[in-house]
Amino acid sequence: MSKIKVQSPVQNPIIHLPSYKTWGVDRYYFVSKLKALGIEPFPADKDIILAQWYYYTDAEGWSKLLPDLVLKSSLYQPNKFKCVQYAWLAWLNCIQRYGLNSLCPCIDKNVAGDTQRAHAYNIFPIGDATGIQDLMLFEPNEGYEYSGSAILIGAEGYIPELVFV
Q: 20-164: which CATH architecture?
């Protein structure tokens, strides 16, 4: 069942929230899935826990939510609002709007073969009540060709190396 959420008049006054299922896994489980793919968590210190549980949905749920998390490319400002800020804002919007904190920012030092710069975007788990079945990527900047949809790890030069989790 869908929901209607009323916000303050400063923001969009009414948002239609699609229905989707959610599940949670502990940080250790999520990190083990990342490490199995050669992706390092940040912080790596096991004594620093930013969130004990990570909440996610299935492929159908993400397909309803991801298009809403794409951000306008006009937000870009050199040295002020770049790919890192896009990834963080998409993550925070996902938490605020949908209660899912697993659309985590990640960093890639070699996007599309360009070794001179890093690129940030998001990684997220797809699964069900039995756990995480897959990890996918999300480009939140509408200015990129692959924005708004799930991207396979390694496709189009997207190879995350570090995930903020």
A: 2-Layer Sandwich (3.30)
